[in-house]
Amino acid sequence: MTRKLPIAFFLASSQVAAVSAEDLGALRSEVEQLKALVIKLEQRLTDVEEHKVVVQDLNALTKLNPVSVKSSQDSRVTLASDFRLRYESIEKQGSDRRERERLRARASLTYKGNDFTGVFGLASGGDSPTSTNQTLGGGGTSKGLQLDMAYVIYPLNDQVNLFAGKMKNPLHRPGKYGLVWDSDYRPEGVFLTTEAGAFELTAGSFWLESDTKNSNERAVYAVQGMYKTELGDTKVNIGLGYFEANLAGDTAFWDGDTVKLGNYQNCTNGACVFTNDYHVVEAFAEATLTNNINGFAHWIENTEANQDNTGYVVGVNIGKTKNAGDWAFQAAWQNLENEATVALLTDSDFAGGGTGGEGSQLTLSYKASASLAVNLLYSDTERTTYTDSSPLDYKRLVLDFSMKY
Q1: Dmax over Cα atoms in the chain, in whole Å?
Q2: Are strands 278-290 and 273-274 parallel, antiparallel or unpaired?
């Protein structure tokens, strides 16, 4: 098209000689205007063609190097969240039956980089170390939102990882049962984990109180080893552990940690302080009998107390709730004496939480869909603290509707 414009300009110029002299000036003026217009049109067409070339080059470049957005599966930052509605019925000897509805909501962000992994999580609830539940009521008042986790995992080499911050507990819980550690407890400190073949080792320290102004600065030190082997067709995990919390003479680290939680405390001088230290040794075993049946046993003893210083649980897990329609069942018998371990950190569901409980606990779980699970827990126990003249019956029924999204 650009080649036709000079020809049109030549034809228009040749007609000038055919006009009369008096019209020559007017025609010359028109020709000059036409010439200027043609020059502008040529420049315009040149710009358009150059733009097309640029667009074509960009299109070609885009095809060679497409811009893409990574899916959530490929993303370095992932979001996980869950929500749980709970109905709870509690029958304690000497008290009226208690019923309540509760909820729990949690969300966490996980960053996985080439050099470290970082986790940040929030959860509903108050300041309890072992529960993020919120009881519904108060006229619909707003519910609390707390820092649940904030920690990093840094690989020191191919076999050793460093955990630091307020973290998901790296210590193993045999049978996923809370004889010593509640599933919601988030230790605040530093741990090292290593795995070499069939052997796993976890060791670290976490704070119960880190501020010296509170006069009871105290850390807990823990080490735990586990060996995985097979006996015929049966997979077996065998473990030993030890943790040390020197609490004798210290006041409680949380206002809910009273004599009712189970540990012995001396209150003769006005302020209640712990009677004993806790140097706890543990031994445990897990046996996978079939793909759907797993048995477990866990035993502990506090070597710093002269009486009421042991605890154990034996149980079985049947089934797994991985896919929609799956069922799972857990049955366990537990006996946890008052001074066997630190009451503040144990399972908050069994016998009201803490130490000084004995009895059975049954849990039935059903995976209704990929994102919805229904859990029914029933415990029939006796609860003992040194303020009670005799053990008191304590029964608990819990119905949970748990959703992940």
Answers
A1: 134
A2: unpaired
User: Which domain CATH number covers 87?
Assistant: 2.40.160.100
Q: What is the pLDDT of residue 121?
A: 98
Q: Is residue 69 included in any domain, yes or no?
A: no
Residue 252 pLDDT greater than 90, yes or no:
yes
Number of helices and strands (H, E) in the chain? Answer: 2, 19
CA distance 41 to 45: 6
Q: What is the pLDDT of residues 55-68, one digit of tens each?
A: 444 444 334 444 33
Percentage of the chain surpassing pLDDT 70? Answer: 81
Going by the DSSP 8-state scheme, the letter that residue 340 receives in this structure is S
Coil vs helix vs strand at 133: coil
pLDDT band at 216 (very low <50, low <70, confident <90, very high): confident
Q: Residue 275 is encoded by which pair of tokens?
A: 């009677």
Q: Are 39 and 5 in contact (CB under 8 A)?
A: no
Q: Supply 188's token pair.
A: 């605040």
Nearest to 341 by CA among 260, 244, 273: 244
**Dihedral (C-alpha) 152, 188, 299, 241: value to the nearest 10 degrees?**
60
For range 299-327, the mean pLDDT: 96
pTM reported for the whole predicted model: 0.79
The CA distance from 311 to 364, in Å, is 24
Q: Are residues 396 and 332 located together in one domain of the fold?
A: yes
Among 158, 83, 78, 156, smallest CA distance to 118 is for 78
Contact, 309 vs 353, CB < 8 A?
A: no
Q: Which pair of tokens denotes residue 119?
A: 């986790």
151 and 50 in one domain?
no
